[in-house]
Structures are given as structure tokens and as C-alpha cells.
Structures
1.
Amino acid sequence: MTHPSLEVRIGSLTLRNPVLVASGIIGYGAEYERLVDLSAIGGIVTKTVTRRPRAGNPPPRVVETFLEIKAPILSTLPCAVIVSVEGEDVREFCELVEGISASGVAHAIEVNISCPNVGPHGLKYSTDAGMAREVMSAIRPLTRLPLIAKLTPNVTRIGEIAEACESCGADAVSLVNTFIGMAVDSVTGKPILGTVLGGLSGPAIKPLALAKTWEVAQAVDIPVIGMGGITHARDAVEFILVGSTAVQVGTALFANPSLPEACVNELESHLRRSELSSVADLIGALEVPPGRGVIRAGRRAS
Ligand SMILES: Cc1cc2nc3c(=O)[nH]c(=O)nc-3n(C[C@H](O)[C@H](O)[C@H](O)COP(=O)(O)O)c2cc1C
């Protein structure tokens, strides 16, 4: 059998393989170039770029700094670069999308409407379909780059939010951002996190993330980019089976920087073992008994 094809498409962007590094894990890529072989993976998603410095979540990520200092480095990386942006209101989202788009450095933009760590505005746009629509429809006309809406799992009907983004021209949705969690110190009687609530990521969330990804994949026709707790190479295959076109590796990369590459290799081996010629044959190929696992919130389930 010839080499199985690992290429996937996210809107107009072709990725050489479906494995990406998630936002917030390797900064702007260059910092980790010696640890992660970027030429072996599909691409990276940058740390979320905001309009203004953000107190309490250092270091500040400001669009001007990004464009001056980070953008020139990003354009030298040997993989696709997806720039993550987040505004405090719709106007800021628009400014960020216009700025990043004009810089010419991004192959796609991930619209982070789901950050749980930045107070009420972070989550509001992805917990309400109307507000998700407001952001996505405002930014859609401002760029020709593929737009990926990053969703929060902290909602009851995530399929509806994904559908809202799709209806406003999103080229893909990515999920999950972190689950809201908290840690308590019983000795001091105080919360352990300065922010009281924080974002839970890593292996604990994988079953939850798989379920959300499965739900969204049933609700929309655009590509779904799945993530949450990918720790072993085979986890990437699981996310593709439930309907992901591409996957993102997050927290586990801190312990194992070669994990993204291992995911690519495992994916290729899996396709060979299954005698499949393309990763496209694996997307959503989970064998579910008829009538089982259908989630009623999604359009396709109705
Ligand atoms: C240290 C850290 C920083 C993160 N920063 C961002 C960020 O800037 N923007 C974003 O959209 N997601 C951010 N995330 C969320 C991840 O991109 C990912 O959605 C989440 O951690 C789930 O994947 P994982 O379990 O593989 O880590 C961050 C996660 C971690 C652990």
C-alpha cells in the first residue's frame, strides 16, 4: 500500500497532517522549536492575542507587540500558523481580526470566544448562541482567512453554539477549551487559585471532551477540530473517529514535547493497519449501534 494521505482541509487551508499544538502551550512557536519538530506536524495555534495587556494573566499579550515582535518569527516556522485572538467586545474582535489578517502571518485565525480565565466577558460569547453569532457575523466580512471558532465546553447544548458559528460563516469550530474548575485548601479554608475558579485541562477531561466533540460533529457540516486531554498518540485517533478533522495537543505536551509527532506517526500506522488510504476515511468513522449516542440538540439529530 502507498503512503496513506494525512492531508486535511480547514476552509481554504490545507494542513499536511491533522495534528496541531493547542493555543497557550508553546507561546508563539519559536520558543519551542528545538523541542517540538514543527516540520513534522500540521501546525500550531498561538497563545491568544488580546487587544490590551491583561492584568492578572501575565505576560501581557498585546496585538501591537505581537505584530512587531512575534509576527516576523512566526512567518519563518515550517508549519501552518493559526493565530488565536480574543477581544473584550465585538469591536476589539474586529480590530484584532483586521490587524492579524493584514499582517499576512496567519494561515487561519482561531477566534477564542471561550477563555474561562478572564472574567465574565471571556465566556459570554460562547455560552450564548446569539452572542456567538454577533461576534462571528461582525468579523466574517473582515478577512478571507479561514475562521475557526473555539468553543467552551461549559454549556448544556454545545451543538447549538457550533451551529450559530457555522451559520455566520465560520470555516471550522475547535473544542474544547478548558472546563471551569476549582481547588480548595481545607487547611487554610481558602481557594487555591488566585482567580478562585480556573480552567481544567489534561487527561481528566478527555472523556468529557470526546463527548462534546462527538456532539458538535453531529450538529455541523464544517470541520471540527477536537482537543482536550490528548496524552497518548492513540487519543488523537479517538478524536478523529468521533468526527474531528484535526486535533490539537495541549497540556500533555509539557511532559512530552514529542507527543504531537507521535500522534502523526500513530495516525499513519492506524491508517495502514486499517487499510485506509486517507485520514478522511477515518473522520467520524466511529461504529455506533443504530439509534445509540444520538444527541437531540444538534440539527442532524432532529
Ligand atoms: C497553560 C495553558 C494556557 C492556555 N492558554 C490558552 C489560550 O491562550 N487560548 C486558548 O484558546 N486556549 C488556551 N488554553 C486551552 C488549551 O488550548 C486547550 O483548549 C485546553 O487546555 C484543552 O486541551 P488539553 O487538555 O490538551 O490541554 C490553555 C491551556 C493551558 C493548559
2.
Amino acid sequence: MTGRTRRLGVVAVAAVAALVVGQAGATAAPGDPGSPSYTQGSSGIGDAYFPLTGNGGIDVTHYDLTLHYTPPAPAPAPLEGALKATASIDLIPTRDLDQFNLDLRGLTATGVSVDGSPTSFTQVPNELVITPRPKLRANRPVKVVVQYGGRTTRPTDIEGALYGWVTTRDGAMVANEPEAAATWYPVNDHPLDKATYDFHVTVPQGLVAVANGRLLGQKTTRGWTTWNWDAPDKMASYLATASVGNFDLKKYTAPNGVPIIDAIDRDLDPTASAGLAQQGEMIVYFASLFGPYPFNSYGAIVDDDSLGYALETQTRPIYSLRARESTVAHELSHQWLGNAVSPGRWQDIWLNEGWATYAAWLWAEHDGGATTQSQFDSVMQAPATDPFWDLEIADPGAAHLFADPVYDRGGATLHALRAKVGSRTFFRIARQWVSRYDDSTATTEDFEALATEISGQDLEAFFDVWVHTTGKPTSW
Ligand SMILES: [Zn+2]
């Protein structure tokens, strides 16, 4: 992500507290007295920052999402759409279950089946609670089909930023970080449970629906067009999109063969997408630093509405109003650093944003702009008394995931690490980071262990100073 209005401060603590309270009564509980091996899957996956996000007891392998979307009527009609959808979810119980949850927020489930048998379910805030009969056996895959729908609006996160299925006048901008996939499909909404996806999105003829991965084709019947996309590379739910708008699709190929589809709103001035011109070269450059491009396709979505930020949605980042070159470099580098390797906990967000910040510095230097050293120096110009240094970036708090220090102190941390271990070792760490944790997640501790292993240096004091404490680093 880039471009959020990011500041330090006490934000929406009440909202976090409300989530914790909302969890009461829905946590893991013992199973039926008559069948002690069966338990209820928990309502959260165990992320301290977002207790209700994700769920325990299940491992989703694939989501097949069939969405029928009616955008808002022209102004002055309310900015509300209508979604009618079916999610077909392949999952594996990780233990014997007599009940399990999926995250679903603001939409109403109208039917649930498990392996074709209608199943009872209830909804509580943020959670779809499913009670399968027969009960689920550990490690035996099942297909859960949820029919659901409702009114779409413009959801906001605990900082007040738009996210999730954000209804626009001509469609929707869909960007889920950190836990808003649940605003448009039933989901185990945490990076720890990556899955593959298929999308079948039906919109009024003339509009274009753009999701992750490859465009398999589209078909128009009686004034409605269904757009079919598939994303066969594992993906964290916060990186899924199915944005809808007045898009022109531009198809071309990067110099290394990666197929690119850009979706650019027809109402935007051509300069709005000028920053996309070097995407192909950026893919080649980042592949030379971080290893082969990790997915089967790429491209951008540039919409004429605004979320207030850009997000690195997998294979297809989404931009608000304009795609600036430095932002494009940032979001593209996230495909390796954030998307192939995702944070194991939301507190590890600096590994996403610090790396993408540093990658954008590297691109600028490669492209003849500011050097990485000068970018580092400008971060370090902030005096020790500046509140910029008051955040512990390896544990920033749920309300500060996208605060400036997570990005800039994070980028500076990586530059300082490069100075400490040497460029050759630093980029070996980077490549090994991506290859070792590809299609998976990792934590700050994992990164420290890898850097220590590859450099052969004791880096404990280094990481303590840069990421585990507040205060301006003065020596390392
Ligand atoms: Zn970012």
C-alpha cells in the first residue's frame, strides 16, 4: 500500500476494543458432550491486532466466486450497489469440527451447503457460523457453497480509510487490506490461509470487471457481461480484487514474457496512467534483484475514483486517480515482498512496507533518480525529538499499520542492514527470503534468523535498535 494519509496518533482505540468485546462467546469451545473429539472452529485465527479475522480449524484451498453486481444508479441516487453471489469454497478441516466460521461482514447469507447437503448456519457480526451435519472429519476435504448478497456501500477501517468492496458511481474499487475481504465474500480472512481463486463477475454490458490473474474470457447475454478470471497462484485474501468500472483493457507483454493487462478508466486523462509505462522494465529489474517474477501475469487498475491510496492487489495493483512511477515501483515490488511472502501476523507489516519502500528507492536509483543513500539520509535527517521515531515498527499497533515510520524507518532499516552486511550478502538475503517463504508467510523473527544465517553476523543488537525499540538509531 502507498499514499494513505498516515500520521501518528491515537486512532480508533474504541473500535479495536469493540472487536475484542464482540468476540466474547464465539471463541473455541469444547465439542458435543457425546462426541468429545469434535470441536468448534474458533472465530479468529489468532492475530493479536484483529482478533476476529480469519478462523481456526479450517484451511481453505480454493475460492470460486460468482458475483452478480449492479452498480449504483446515476447521481443523485445513493452510492450503493447490489451484490448477489455464490461462493464455492474448497476447504480442509484441520481437526474434527462440529461447527466452523467464515468471516462475512455486512452481507446476508441465504443458503449454505456442505458437499451438496443444505446446512444450518447463523450470522453474528463479522462471522458466518456453519454447523455441518454430518460433522467434518479432520483432513477430509469438503466443498462449502454459500449463497449470499446485499447492499454494497463504502466500508472503512479502524483508521477511517476506505477499504473492501468500495462502491463507486460506475462500479467498485476493491482493496481489502488488512481484513476487508469479508465485505464481499465469505472468507478465512488472514494471510496465514492463502488459497487459489476463480472469479466470474457479471456486470451491466459496457462495464468491465477486473480481478486477479489471467482473463479467461467474457460473455454477454441479455445486457449483462460475465468476466471470467483465474488466479492459480496462492493468494492472501487481502490481495484479492474484483474491481468494476468503465475500463479500457490494454494487453502487452513484459520483456521477460510476463503477460500484462492494464485496466484504465476511460474518463481519466492519459497522463494519469503515464507512470505505468515502465512496468515491463521494472519487472525485469526486480526479478534481477529478488528472483523470478512470482506469478503468471501482471497489470494495473487505475480508477477515476479514489480510495486515498494504492494497493498491491496480487498481480494487479489498484491506483486511485493516478499511477505515479514511484508508486508503481512500490506496488510492483510488493509482488515479491508482501504477496509471494506475506506477513504472518499483521504486526509484521514493516516487512511489506519497508521492503517496498526500499525497492522503490532502488528503482529510482536504477532509473537515474535519487540514490538509495540520499533517500536514507533524508529519512535520517529527522531530529531525534521528532515523533517519527516514536513508533516500534515491528509492533506498531493495529491503528498504525500504515504509519509513515513503518515505511520510511522500514526502508532505512534495510539500507542500514545492507551497509552492515554488504550488498552481495544483502541481496542474497532478499532472494533467499522470497524463495524460502514463497506462497507462504513469515515473521520479523524469521527475517532476523535468515539475515543472521546468511550473513554469519550477530544481528540481535542491530534489529533491536532498528525495529524493536522506539527512538532514533544512532549507531548500529
Ligand atoms: Zn505498500
